[in-house]
Each structure stands twice: as structure tokens, then as C-alpha cells.
Records
---
Amino acid sequence: MADTIVDAVSHALDEAPARNFRETVDLAVNLRDLDLNDPSKRVDESIVLPSGTGQDTQIVVFATGETAVRAEDVADQVLGKSELEDLGDDTDAAKDLADETDFFVAEAGLMQDIGRYLGTVLGPRGKMPTPLQPDDDVVETVNRMKNTVQLRSRDRRTFHTRVGADDMDADEIAENIDVIIRRLEATLEKGPLNIDSIFVKTTMGPSIEVPA
């Protein structure tokens, strides 16, 4: 990991004005030389941050039976088939749930119903559930997703993602940023050449450029 990333994070943390609440540390990525009108060229990646997000991640699980019982210990909400049908009849409640939730997980057998009842709400928000296969451990899946962030550019050249919190160590946040940059360089059409600039900042602090 480059020392320049650590230096940029340290600068962002040092320059942030004192607040009486815990601030998120965010990364802004500016892309270039990409036709983002072509969906295949857009950034859409889920990344597990090695140092965690530093924030509470809201996860809702759609499940039944034993899977639902096990999910109760780790998920923020566990919803069964009847709750799913109720959401399908209440668009406002479905939208509120979608906006409040970072990630959804669902038993594979429920995915068809979710598409029918909630597809028009979750699809445009990029929040269709991660399917849980019969052999998958719901506890392990949810715990992994608590440390996951979504990189999604849509059709815009600038997109943001959280990379930590202001009470985390600069090295930890820098490690998260390094993982994100490496993933982008590996997946973008022209690798590093498609990255114009990257900035890191706390919620209320100034933006500090992360040198290439």
C-alpha cells in the first residue's frame, strides 16, 4: 500500500473540524474516457473492506424456517413470505425499507417472489437481494456483508463510497482505499487510465486528493 494514501487520509482526518458525532470517511472517484451510457462500462462492484466500514450496515434477510431463525441473531430484520407479500401491497413501506437498508439477502427460493413483489422498488435502487443458496451459511453471509460497500457509478463520472469512520486509524482507512483502487484498476476498461482523480474526506471536512 502506498504511503501517499496514508498521508492523504491522515491529512483529511487532521483537517476535519471537531464534531460531537461520529463522521463517515468517504471516497470520491472521478472517472474519465468511459462511455457510461453503455451499462457494461459502468462500475458496479461489491467490495469487502479488510478493516470494515466503521459504520452500522443495515441488512434485511428474506427467509423462512431454520434459516430465518439463524438470521435473527445477525440481521437487522428477518422477513418471511407473508411480510414480503404485505410489502408488495404497500409501495410506500417498500420504498422506506429499501432506502433504510444497505443490503438485502434472500433464500434463493424466494427470489422469484421478491422480483414479483419488490422488483420495481429494489431494482432501480440496485438493491436486489444477494441469493442465499441451500449450502450457504446465512450468519457468515450477513457478517461478511456488514463489511461490504457497493461501488456504483451509474451513468455519472463521479461516484462516492464510504471507506471508514473518523475514529478509525488512518492506516486502516488507507487499507480499505487501497483495496478499492486495486479493484477499480483491475475491472475498468483501461485500468488506471480510466481514473481521473480520487479524493478522501470526512462528512463535514475538506476533500483531500489521493495521489495516483
---
Amino acid sequence: MSAYRTLSSTHSSIRRFLLAATCVLTLAAAPSYADEYDATVKDIQSTMGGVPGFVKQFPKAGLPGAWAEVKAIQLSDKTALPPKVKSLISLAVAAQIPCNYCIWSDTQDAKRAGATDEEIQEAVAVSALTRHWSTIFNGMQVDFDTFRKEMGGQ
């Protein structure tokens, strides 16, 4: 029993040490975290001309990373896909989720990027076809290996 108490006491000491170390590291990182958050909010302000309310509702710890991802992929014109194509893809996905916020925003983005009404309608129709056939294949439990062979795969 004595060995158990010693082991239990050792584990408690280790837990207390780890908790204290975590608190110290968290407090030490706080100023840079706040600086990174503030810099991100300033960048959003300069990029978008304002800071939407939903940004202020987003967890502060995640905002710098989330904004970096949006800028690097969605807002960048230095990616493999041009802005119009990215907006049309996003709109098609938003229509399937569905997300009214995204549908409205992606439609505006697609139009600003030069998409015509016909291109917007086609992107949504293609997403509907994909959803339709996905429902058929999955609901009817079509064998994937057979499907792949019949569609020209190996």
C-alpha cells in the first residue's frame, strides 16, 4: 500500500507541475497572441474596408490562422484557380450545404469576378447533378469497383 501512495503522490506532483507549466506558458504567450489578433483585425479592415460582426464572434485564438487561409486560397489571385472559378465552386458547394450567407456572398463575389448569370446558374445546376447522382450511387449501393471499371478506370 505504501508503494501505491508513493506512486500516487508522484503522479499528483507531476500533474501539478504540468498544470503550473501550462499556465506559465499560456501567460507568456498572451502578449504575442493579442498582438497577432490585433494585427489580423487590422489586416481584415484594410483588405475588406471594414470588419464584419461575424469576425468579432470568431474565436480570437483561431482568427489569425483562419484569415491567413482565406487570404492564401480564396482571396489570392496567385493560385491555380482564378477568382471567378473559386467563387463559382464555392457557390455550388454553398447551394448544396445549403448556406444562405455563403450563397449570397459567393454570388456577389462571382459577379465581381466577371461571372455571368448563365455561369452562376450552370454552376448551381452542376452541383445539383452531382448531388442527384451521388444520391443514386450511394442509395442503391452501386459497387464502386464495378462503377470505376465501367467508367473507364482500372
